[in-house]
Amino acid sequence: MSDQKKTPRNNDDAAEPGGALKQAESRLQYALRDLAQSSWMITVLSIVVALVVGALLILATNPQVQATLGYFFARPADFFATSFEVIRDAYSALFRGAVYDWQAATPQRAIRPITETLVNAVPLILAGLGIAIGFRSGMLNIGGQGQIILGATCAAFIGYAFALPLGLHLLLALMGGVLGGAIWGGIAGVLKAKTGANEVIVTIMLNNIALYFLAWLLRQQWFVQTGSNQPIATPVEDSARLFGLLGTGFRLHAGIFIAIAATVFVWWLLERSTLGFEMRAIGENPEAARTAGVNVPKATALVLIIGGALCGLGGAAHLLGTEYRLAAGIAGTLGFDAITVALLGRSRPLGTFLAGLLFGGLRAGGVLMQAQTGTPIDIVLVLQSVIVLLIAAPPLVRAIFFLPSTERKKKPRRRQKPVQEAVR
Amino acid sequence: MSEQPTAPDTAAVQAEPLEQAEARLQPIRWKFPITYAVLGLLSLLVFTLLIPAGAATQFRVSTASDFITFDAINVPSFGTALSLSILQLALAGWAVYAAVHRIRLGVWHPVLFGTLFVLAFLVYAGAGRGAFIPMVTLLSGALMLSVPLIFGAMCGLVGERSGIINIAIEGQLLAGAFLAAVAASFFTSAYVGLLAAPFAGAAVGGLLVWFAVKYHVNQIIVGVVLNVLVIGLTSFFYSTVLTQNAELWNARQQLPRLSVPGLSQIPIIGPVLFNHTILVYLMYVIVAALSILVFRSRWGLRMRAVGEHPKAADTVGINVARTRVINTVLAGAIAGLGGAYFTVGQGLAFGQEMSAGQGFIALAAMILGRWNPKGALFAALLFGFSTSLGQTLSTIGTPVPSEMLLMLPYVITIFAVAGFVGRVRPPAAEGIPYIK
Question: Where residue B13 falls among pLDDT bands split at 50, 70, 90?
């Protein structure tokens, strides 16, 4: 076991002639450069490559551009001018939809996009944090989707089935979401702790079970309480909704504070608490953790319970703050987006927060881009996945930009490791 | 074998490898007998006793277009369900006897038990409803629904046996479906689509293995992200090119149904197995070929060696990276071919995310089949059957919610990986990058 873990390092060093020597010489310089450059640099460059890929896709499918290609050899300038315009329009719409709309009629409308970004980011950040905890502890929780569904389901039911005083109702609904996610994550966690069942498989299966479970619930009248056959539940009571922060015309709700609080909590949990230390320890090396007296099964189960709870909270915040009504597609692609958020954030709380903002922004901007330029919002999925793929393979990014490969060692070691471990 | 009391001592003294020791120390396994007994009792108490008195169940074992047609079979529900339940309990009793005497039961035992259980359930579900239970439709539907699952499971199997975890089966199926539809529509020939589909799957497999082998990126992560990428790409092209000019790029094409002369005229079996498109026959060929080649050929041996112990394989001169690349690309091609089922196989145009999670069920089927072609085949058929049962029963009205039946594959898989159905052991080097 430990053999296999070491092999990549030694070999990585040996792969480059003189790499080991250089590393020994200037460790400090190395660390500095790594901090200043690679991690951030790779992220930025990955985003650039993704945008280029997106631009190519937009060009390839744009009818105007195709038209100019028809007489490309007669007037090549036309092609380039049209291409430039098309891409400028698309990406400026993406930016205006995500950050600040300078073309908007009123100041309110102009700043609305950034609030939309935050709205989209709330569930992404919360669920991303849940997944990130798993990654840091060496567990691949693919079950964000199911945990979000369960969280949203529990929160919704508490939100409309009971009449409770303001404040308490919201709190209970949120707690219900936490509990729902925690149970769903806990199934995978306890099974892994007790029987060693691979959490990847169990969480994928639980995703689908959650989907059918929700579909079944939505057909039960005691659950939906609408009196109609539509597979959609009653809207949650006002007392259980996350209150809006900016008045009418804005969807921004108090969930953003929950997301910030959760980010701080996860930072505290992972970096400052004993439990977090144990969780990271089992991610780094379960054998060593066991030897050091960590109760590995307990920590394993807790990782997935806490991760599930965060995902459930994300689902609850999404429902109580944005959707209000539970429907079969409540989770959308949130669960899988959360995985990409956690990966882009390199499983660090702050990183996950920022990654959530970025992907939330892409989503918000994608809506405007689709409305104004007709570029389907699906391109956001492409951007997202290309960014994450590239971030996972720093050597590839360096190769694309002809960067020196001397910094290569750091990456697979420090950043990827917990995730690599998870496979075993 | 039978001297159980002494076994622990020997094991301790000789310090045998853990697995061997386990095998010998194994106490009586009550798991299966208890499961059988519980299911048998369920069949007796629920399926039999809840049947209204005097009800009858009607089975239809042929369709009007068959070569030989039969009249519908009409059975008294109560008596049939009772006898089926008693047979199940007898099998459960035998399982108890076998467990006590530590006799290993063959595969036929669970298969027979399962068949009886399902039949009892069908008798119960159809009791007194006045509707026929269409056995041929049920079974051929099960086979059709299993097609993408079986292709996907074979893809996962070839990849994982060579040490590459393939979560991207879903993406490969979807890519195959997309390219099959586009190529078939462009050349107005379903067969061209069938030829093109494997290339799309292979491309996704190639990306997966490129990131996994060259950059040592975690394979599960690449797989998950590739699924998102394929969904994004296909949906993007669907919303742009495919909808702008649907007649050229996304017109429906269907593979013709070819019935095998002679074989397709056998009652029940013929229409169920031998009256399909070429895709289904290709599936038979691939499953048969893999179940021989994986265990009996040089290619299979190398593949398994690379997946179990790449260092040993490398030592005897097998190129680990190349083996993994070739096998994963090949696996992707298999899944891509399976993806063609969604479009040209069914005669449908491409639609967004039309693979709808089938890739994940295929993954489950492979795990439940323990990385073995035959096992994966049966698991995929089981999953297809539970879906087909759900569909059939929802048309004739059923006491069991169809969602529960649709959930069944996933629940069974969780039980399987939690160690209930014996030990599920993946290839040892799966997911671990091999770096010389």
Answer: very low
CA–CA separation, B338 and B331 (whole Å): 11
Q: Do A205 and B411 touch (CB under 8 A)?
A: yes
Enumerate the residues of chain A whose CB falls inside 8 A of the CB of residue B350: none
Per-residue confidence (pLDDT) for residue B57, from 0 to 100: 82
How far is B298 from B288, CA to CA, in rounded Å? 16
Domain range list for chain B: 27-130, 136-417
First-to-last CA distance in chain B? 43
Residues of A in contact with B360 (CB under 8 A): 204-205, 207-208
Q: What is the pLDDT of residues A70-122, one digit of tens each?
A: 888 888 888 899 999 999 999 999 999 999 988 888 888 899 999 999 999 99
Paired with A253 in beta bridges are A244
Are B228 and A381 a contacting pair at CB < 8 A?
yes
- Residue numbers in B near A212 (CB within 8 A): 403-404, 406-407
Chain A residues in contact with B218 by the CB 8 A cut-off are 140, 392, 416, 419-420, 422-423
Instruction: Please report which helix (H) or strand (E) contains residue B58, including its range.
Output: strand B56-60
Topology of domain B136-417, CATH? ABC transporter involved in vitamin B12 uptake, BtuC (1.10.3470)
d(CA A69, CA A84): 14
Residue type present at position B249: W
Give the tens place of pLDDT for each residue, B137-171.
Answer: 889 889 999 999 999 999 999 999 999 999 999 99
Backbone angles phi, psi at B210, to 5 degrees: -65, -50
pLDDT for residue A21? 53
Question: Do A389 and B239 lie within an 8 Å CB cutoff?
Answer: no
Q: How many CA atoms lie within 13 A of A8 on its CB side?
A: 24
Across the interface, whether the CB atoms of A205 and B401 are under 8 A apart is answered no
Q: Which among B167, B222, B417 is the nearest to A197, CB-wise? A: B417
3-class DSSP state of A327: strand
* DSSP symbols for A370-411: HHHH---TTHHHHHHHHHHHHHH-HHHHHHHTT--GGGGGHI
- Please state, in angstroms and rounded to a whole number, the distance separating the CA atoms of residues B268 and B139: 9
For an interface test with B, which of A12, A204, A206, A359 has the most B Cβ atoms less than 10 Å from its Cβ?
Answer: A204
What is residue B395's predicted lDDT score, i.e. its pLDDT?
75
Q: What are the DSSP calls for B268-291, one per residue? A: THHHHHSEEEHHHHHHHHHHHHHH
Q: Which of B415, B145, B99, B418 is nearest to B272 (CA)?
A: B145
Integer Cα distance of A129 and A131 in angstroms:
5
Give the architecture-level CATH label for domain A111-377.
Orthogonal Bundle (1.10)
Contacts of B5 (CB under 8 A, 6+ apart): none
Radius of gyration of chain A from its Cα atoms, rounded to whole angstroms = 23
Give the number of C-alpha atoms closer than 13 A to the C-alpha of residue A332, restricted to the C-beta side. Answer: 15
Query: Which of B217, B363, B432 lies at the smallest CB-CB distance from A393?
Result: B217
- How many residues are given for chain A? 424
Are A138 and A168 in contact by the 8 Å Cβ rule? The answer is no
Retrieve residue B206's tokens: 């190639």
Q: Determine how β-strand B132-134 pairs with β-strand B73-76.
A: unpaired
Residues present in chain B in total? 436
CB contact under 8 A, A216 and B401: yes
Backbone φ and ψ for B96, nearest 5 degrees, come out as -65, -45
Average pLDDT taken over every residue of chain B: 85
Residues 6+ apart with CB under 8 A from B327: B158, B159, B161, B162, B164, B303, B306
CB B333 within 8 A of CB B206: no
CA distances from B363 to A291, A369, A424, B173, B201 (A): 35, 36, 18, 12, 15
The DSSP bridge partners found for residue B277 are: B257
**Residue ranges of the domains in chain A?**
23-61+380-408, 111-377
